[in-house]
């Protein structure tokens, strides 16, 4: 099918929430928030359908295979019908929400550039610098720094899957105990690394604990001291803030275009349905037979 050919050139990307459990460079390269064409999707929309169908799990587990397929098919058709009936309302709400968020992100980007002293003609250069920094692998080979990164990313991933992969409070309690032990190892490794380091290259324990805290989730990325080049004229931390603001605005601009295209397609669909109804009404009024039910013909007449 020619209309599906662009799907062959699609790029994979990490969902916005899942990307937070990866390293900063990996998040810059593969997060859906930073890839062209992704819009403002979180990458978890398929879970909405799975959540809707999961209500069948208790009853379908005792059914035969054919009855189970019929039950899931009926629920999937119900999901599609509900989406079709409410699509015009959902698109209108999404458009208003996107426009409001776009105004906020535009002002946020303007304030960020003024705060960091980045002129408008330098924004694209800073964005390219951050991408080059993320794709350039400057691994120092220091076992101590690699161990710190490994412990930190391991904690982030285990905290992200704490409730997703466990359904028992007893198992969660054991995993929380292991998380506390690994966090103690991480803080000890950070203190050992900071010994003998100048103040500007030390790892801030408060920043690490803030990133690991479930009560203080943040969108700021953690950049380690060994990842910052000493010969950079502008701090990579400042460039990363401009990069995040720029990408947030770009994704909302894409989302606005996507919603407008979906609105246009939905209007064309409704017009085609209206034309079919007119043809059916004309056919019935002329005394012809229709494939509709008697109730449908009664409502048309």
UniProtKB/TrEMBL annotation:
Top-rank taxon: Eukaryota
InterPro entries reported for this sequence: KDZ
The name this protein goes by in its record: Uncharacterized protein LOC117536385
Source organism of the structure: Gymnodraco acuticeps
Gene: LOC117536385
